[in-house]
Amino acid sequence: MNHERSGDLYDRALSVLPGGVNSSVRAAIEPYPPFADHGEGGHLIDADGNRYVDWVMGLGPLLLGHDLPEQVQSEIQRHASAGPMYGMPTEIEVEHAEFVARHVPSVEMLRFVNSGTEATVSATRLARGYTGRNKIVVMQGSYHGANDSTLVEGDVDERGPSTAGIPAEFAEHTIPVPFNDPEAATEAFEKHGDDIAAVLVEPILANKGIVHPVDGYHETLRDLCDDYGSLLIWDEVITGFRVGGLGCAQSKFDIDPDVTTFGKIIGGGFPVGAIGGKSEIISQFTPSGDVFQAGTFSGHPVTMAAGLETLRFAAENDVYEHVNSLGEKLRSGLTEIVREQAPAYTVAGTDSMFKLIFTREGPADVSDTCSGGCQQDESCPRFDYCPKTGADVAAVETDRWRRRFWPAMKEQGIFLSQNQFESQFVSYGHTEEDVEETLAAYREAL
Ligand code: PLP
Fold first, then answer.
1. Which fold has domain 70-316?
2. What interface predicted TM-score (ipTM) does this complex get?
3. Domain 4-55+319-445, what architecture?
């Protein structure tokens, strides 16, 4: 493959954009990232004209793939040419909020913002304002965006910022606990319960290789929040309208969070976020309450149109059947390959998410392999080796992924997330042929 033009663009980018990019993970692979030119269905064409089967899908938002259906495109264009924004409320914001509230069990009311980061920032402020407490419990190694309250590492006893630029005193208010460890969460509440405003957790850790909850874990967090008067915030920025279909992951796991953060799919490919939940809590945002929240672009008509029409299209067509069935084919195909070629690796995912986890946990020569689409099933032969926390996955072979595996897939025309911790996503634009081509490439690359 020729990557000359991407190389030239990267050289230019380096002098005007830090690291050559506007989001760190885009340049995780050396020597430089391919620059995108356009998309077609489940495929992406780069600046040199190379075609890839694209399993990144914009890091999750593109549920329908790169070719938006006519009904989505025409609504985007109608709203883009009508203003395109006003600094006034519009009907489309109300319609979008009504759609989400109708389908997501715990959501009665929501506030739209412009990114998943903004959603988790506002949700933590809301929880602090609502409870009058300061501390937030998060999962070690989880990702909730570029949020000063969640970029924290350590444990219940000692913690600090995980990046330069966040005051240590600030990080003191965030308590990281290991995912899937009910005792650690209980201990955090025993020590700090009266100061804990909220637990912020993804239903499935989707930025750490995909780690599923063990049985009863979310129920424990729900009970702890109820017992101590803290809020349970589910971050469904990735899982929202992907896992569990239109009801989101909370309908699949049958858990009722107090607050849910959304992003990605609900903007149909345009910048978006939202904080949803019970009216009593969400109405604490200004102007009906006293927790300040505002944004020039929030509820932007073009974003609202793209997101709402995407969700309507998904409701009226076989979108979830299609993406989930291809997801299942990818996970079972990968499991077969792993069984033959790389038994120590784990295949994880659910619905339209899939991931091969390069874990060093466990023996490399086991004959029993992961049963596929890891759901923390205790009867699976690899249950003990399947990652339970974000930290388990963080011990993976970064170099092997970045220097060998990812480039080997790319050279075969398969585009995976550049960061080895992130999930891959199936879209409505993908086909059975894309799945076959991808599995053949995995076989070769492994
Ligand atoms: N929360 C989760 C679970 C995410 O995966 C992300 C981003 O990937 C965010 C929040 C932040 O969203 P954004 O990148 O739109 O700010």
1. Aspartate Aminotransferase; domain 2 (3.40.640)
2. 0.99
3. Alpha-Beta Complex (3.90)
